Structure formats: C-alpha cells, structure tokens
C-alpha cells in the first residue's frame, strides 16, 4: 500500500457527487492522479476533458482520465459515489436493495483488479453500503470507510455557528450514528472553543435550550430540503470527501465523524455507523468513544438497531 510517490485516486461514479468531489480535489491539489470510472463512459470522457481544461488554474498538475477498473490496481484510494440517489420524499434507507447490488458488483470489480488500498464510500445508505463494501472487498475494517455523518457534522457546525455568531471552525460538535433520519447530537459534548455550549446558553439571555431541537431538525432534514429544491445535494459531500482523502494522504490523525465498523464500541458490533474516529494513512486508527449520557446512548442504540434490522432484511441474504 502507498508504495509509489504518485497519489492516485480512482473515483467510481461520475454523477453529481462524484464530479463535485473531483472538482474540489483538483482545486485543493489533493491528488496527483484521478481516474474516473462509470457505466456511462461517454459522459465520463466528457467530465475528464472538462476537468483537464481547468488544470492550468489548479494548484498542481493533477492528471485526470476516463479509465477502467484495471486502473484501480495502482490506486491508493478508491472513492465510490455510484448508485441511485434519493428522489424527493425518498429516505436513504429506501435505496438499500437497489444500491446494495450495485455496490457489491462495483467492489468485486475493484478487487478483481488487485486493489490494495483504502476504500471510501459515499453512496447511500452510506452506513449500510460501507458494510457491503467491507464484506465484498475482504479488506480489513480499518481500510473501508464511509463518509458517515461527516457532512451532517459540517452542517451542524455551520448552523450552531450561525446561531451563536461564531466561526463554525471553532465549534466542536458531532452529529452521530446513521447518516439518516435516526442521527442525533450529543449536546453535552458540544464545545465552543473549549467552553461547553450548554454552559454558554445557560449564561446567555439571547440563547435558549429550546432552539437546539430546531437546529438538530434542520441538520437532520437538510438533504430533504435541498433535494426538494434542486433535486440533489453534492457540493458539501464533495468537500467532505476531499477532506477525508487529504486526511489519508497527509497521514493527519484527524478526527472526523466517519462510518466505521463497530466491534463492541458504543455497545454494538457488526455494524458500520457514524462515530468520531481518528483517520490517517492506514485508514481508521481508532474510534473515539464519547461518554454518552443515558438519553444519548438510547438514541445511539435505536439508530444502530435500525441499521442492523434493515441489513437483516435487505443485505445479509445477498452477501
Ligand atoms: N454520503 C453522503 O453524505 C451523500 C451521499 N449521496 C449519495 O451519493 C450517491 C450518488 O448521488 P449523485 O451523484 O447525486 O447521483 P447521480 O445519479 O448523479 O450519479 C450516480 C452515478 O452512478 C453511476 N452508476 C450507477 N450504477 C453504476 C455501476 N454499477 N457502476 C458504475 N457507475 C454506476 C451512474 O451512471 C451515475 O453517473 C447517491 O447514492 C446519493 O444518495 C449524496 C449526497 C450526500
Ligand atoms: C443526500 C444526502 O445524503 C445528504 O445530502 O445528506
């Protein structure tokens, strides 16, 4: 793994999410090579041409081409954004059956070509499809990562930042569990700089505990709101993917809320779910286990059980 000096990313899925990631990666100089792979070869060729015409304005000379699964052999990271997206009103879990089949067939083709790097999954339902990718790849659990609640966490930090009028990069807060309707915020673990948000609210006349539920709901429902207005969400997740890829290549040991395999952490096993985790060049180094209060642990349990039940019906029989 990572034996060459060239950082190669293979992107499977050149739709809205895939190409937003590609554009963001190019603009941030996040890789040396990017190979684009999709069922729609003509569109993918067009995407490669279009991106290449921006190289002259990019911070580095990233090589982009429309390729095949054979190109995965020398990829350090494969990013998977292929599959069906939600139609207005559809939940992420509604995509399970359709996208499980697609994910399995994609991962089998990646592995058949000798891939031996880190797999990053964004396709929905991302927690379940990360599990599918892990099983179908045979890779170690540390090397199959879902984007999890990284986007939800970015949305949460933005919305808290707006509420208290502080730079969202100084808000330390996590959206946890399913990237979907059963996600939650452990509010007792939210800090502004190093001050607990709940203490800040307690001391303020302008800020109110009751508003936190509204912030949570806005984050939880953000995708529905955006899909209803513009049919898809893609810039935020494109930037989240770039952040994850850079954390891997730069061996950052950064903490991101990623969909990660639990093996007893938070009281659950054999499930991928969004938790804060340390990520570096080898993938997931470790899971950060927060001290959840009883109410938050019950929310976590409910979310993990929802994922497990969905997998029992729609995934395990096919793996
Ligand atoms: N994890 C997250 O936070 C987010 C995840 N998503 C998910 O990302 C996925 C992609 O969304 P969009 O890009 O908007 O959809 P899209 O429809 O624009 O693109 C999907 C692409 O997948 C390709 N594809 C389908 N089956 C394939 C196969 N077997 N092999 C190779 N390529 C295949 C299609 O040709 C298409 O280019 C969806 O599942 C969506 O729900 C979207 C936003 C955020
Ligand atoms: C579509 C989706 O998963 C999101 O924007 O959160």
Automatic annotation (TrEMBL):
Coiled coil: none
Positions of beta-D-fructose 1,6-bisphosphate binding: 157, 172
UniProt note on regulation of activity: Allosterically activated by fructose 1,6-bisphosphate (FBP).
Free-text function comment from the UniProt entry: Catalyzes the conversion of lactate to pyruvate.
Enzyme class: oxidoreductase
GO biological process entries: glycolytic process; lactate metabolic process
Protein's UniProt keywords contain Phosphoprotein: yes
Underlying gene: ldh
Name the record gives this protein: L-lactate dehydrogenase
Transmembrane segments: none
Ranges of residues in domain Lactate/malate dehydrogenase C-terminal: 149-315
Family statement drawn from the similarity comment of this UniProt entry: Belongs to the LDH/MDH superfamily. LDH family.
Pathway: Fermentation; pyruvate fermentation to lactate; (S)-lactate from pyruvate: step 1/1
Source organism of the structure: Culicoidibacter larvae
Organism domain of life: Bacteria
Residues annotated for substrate binding in this entry: 86, 92, 124-127, 152-155, 233
Cellular compartment(s): Cytoplasm
GO cellular component labels: cytoplasm
């Amino acid at each position: 793994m990572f034996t060459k000096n060239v950082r190669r990313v293979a992107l499977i899925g050149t739709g809205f999410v895939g190409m937003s990631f590609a554009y963001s990666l190019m603009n941030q100089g996040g890789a040396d090579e990017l190979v684009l792979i999709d069922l729609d070869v003509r569109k993918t060729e067009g995407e490669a041409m279009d991106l290449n015409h921006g190289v002259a304005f990019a911070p580095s000379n990233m090589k982009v081409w429309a390729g095949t699964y054979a190109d995965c052999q020398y990829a350090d990271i494969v990013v998977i954004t292929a599959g069906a997206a939600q139609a207005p009103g559809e939940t992420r879990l509604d995509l399970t059956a359709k996208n499980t089949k697609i994910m399995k067939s994609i991962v089998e083709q990646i592995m058949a070509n000798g891939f031996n790097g880190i797999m990053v999954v964004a396709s929905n339902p991302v927690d379940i499809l990360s599990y599918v990718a892990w099983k179908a790849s045979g890779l170690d659990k540390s090397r199959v990562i879902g984007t999890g609640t990284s986007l939800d966490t970015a949305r949460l930090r933005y919305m808290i930042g707006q509420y208290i009028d502080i730079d969202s990069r100084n808000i330390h807060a996590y959206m946890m569990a399913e990237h979907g309707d059963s996600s939650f915020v452990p509010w007792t673990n939210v800090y502004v700089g190093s001050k607990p948000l709940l203490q800040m609210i307690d001391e303020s006349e302008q800020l109110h505990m009751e508003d936190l539920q509204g912030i949570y709901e806005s984050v939880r429902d953000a995708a529905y709101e955006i899909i209803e207005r513009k049919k898809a969400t893609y810039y935020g997740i494109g930037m989240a993917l770039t952040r994850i890829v850079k954390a891997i290549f730069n061996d950052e040991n950064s903490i991101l809320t990623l969909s990660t395999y639990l093996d007893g952490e938070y009281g659950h096993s054999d499930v991928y779910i969004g938790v804060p985790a340390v990520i570096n060049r080898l993938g997931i180094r470790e899971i950060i286990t927060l001290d959840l209060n009883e109410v938050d642990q019950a929310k976590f349990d409910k979310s993990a059980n929802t994922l497990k039940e969905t997998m029992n019906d729609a995934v395990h029989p096919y793996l």
